[in-house]
Amino acid sequence: MPETEVLYTGMSQLTTPAPGPQRGAAMRELRVIPDAALLVRGGQVAWVGRRQDAPAVSEEHDLGGVAVVPALTDPHTHAVWAGDRLADFGARAQGVAYETILARGGGIRSTMRATAAASVDELVALARPRLAALIRSGAATIEVKSGYGLDFAAELRMLEAVQVLAREMPGALVPTLLIHVPPPQGRAEYVREVCEVLIPDVARRGLATAVDVFCEREAFTVGETRAILTAARAHGLGLKLHADQFHAIGGTELACDLGALSVDHLEASGDAQVRALAASGTVATVLPGVSLHLGLPAAPARHLVDAGACVAVGTDLNPGSSPLPSAALALALAVRLCGLTPAEALTAGTVNAAAALGLRDRGALAPGQRADFLALEGRDWRDLVYTLGGQPVRQVYRGGQPAQQGERL
Ligand code: NIG
Ligand code: FE
């Protein structure tokens, strides 16, 4: 049977970065094709160019004269959780620090108690509308972390919830095992069991493609992080870190040393960390929702790009530090708070965000890439990162199909 071919037309402009991770000044180099068309064959981009040069095919779909860009990837979310953090929000509004709340047993630990008490079905029902919002905001691919399990059984339930959701939205979700905060007692034994029991189990069951560790004073030390990530690598999983959120204790240097896919947060990174990232293949993922919500300094994305690093942007959707279910708004905030240009932000949210998940098959509209694209509401792609909230995205296409058709969203 011949593969289906559809020619998408009616594009005021098609704007795309080049495929694969882009670093430094190359993040600003977008291809902008006016009056464009896009040929999809078998779920992949087969041809892109001016409408007048398009090959003749039997099926055409007119998008109505709007701008088209690659669909976004959200490379960092904690979309599965139970309970809420509204009491923390009130306390922080009165000046109590996020780290103080965590040290007192609240914050992440309170979400862990609520999440550990929830069934897989409850977690699925809670996460589904959050993922639907992210997709509506333009994300065709979404990473989802565990990390709120109080024990290994609860951690596995989180990953099982992601697995259920991944079946509902094929090709959309990328699961990560997050080792988030150590237990108050017995942390050496906990780290050993993570390495010897949890990681092998998760790898064997195919429940995650990467392992992430929160490397921070109130969480795991550099030594503990190294041990966990070394075990992850031995089991064929990708490596990711939460590092330099409050203190630059060496997590970024460790990530670069181990060849991690990405190091995320970086609000407290200084020149040494910027240099290390610029000299490495590790993606620097910034999360401007955290700076807005917690009032932290913005990550030095401008310096990272100027130094030649590969920068990505994520929402970090979670109840404590970034209640932001919009990939488009994360990009808009990265322009305002982190000093990216609109073009850099688009690259950061597409090819570079995909690279932060080890994916090179999406994020650009070029032959051979997965046909993931956005029909925007406006005629100029820059609206996507100009608009603060609202709904700049008319339709998300994944593999050449409207993303929300048949998905229980
Ligand atoms: O990425 N900093 C650590 N982890 C999450 C926050 C989780 C939470 O507060 O519930 C983050 O910011
Ligand atoms: Fe996070």
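^ N-(iminomethyl)-L-glutamic acid complex. The longest helix spans residues 187-204. The pocket of fe (iii) ion (ligand 2) is lined by residues 76, 78, 242, 316, 318 (CB under 6 Å).
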